[in-house]
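input
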Amino acid sequence: MDRLQMLKDLIAQDPNNQLARYGLGMEYSTRGEVDAAVGEFKGLLKINPDYANAYFMAAQALVKAERTGEAKQLLREGITAAARTGNGHAQNEMQAMLDELEY
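output
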């Protein structure tokens, strides 16, 4: 069984499995399947709106697909979430990416 199917099976068993959703988003992103990747990251954010890495990785996938406007919006939301949870590292990384996109 390949990694993609394994992650889908884990999510089918437990739709709230945050690690499996993140992993599936990453797998789709690695394969260049931007819409599927962003969909998984957004699904994860519905479960846990404070999962900062999901904002960041979704934004990275969107930038690769030249969907900068969407990426910037997710980064803004992610910066807010990271600030809310005190995750300064994630907040700084997303702010740096947002600054880069806005120049």
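quick obs: The chain is about 80% helix and 0% strand.
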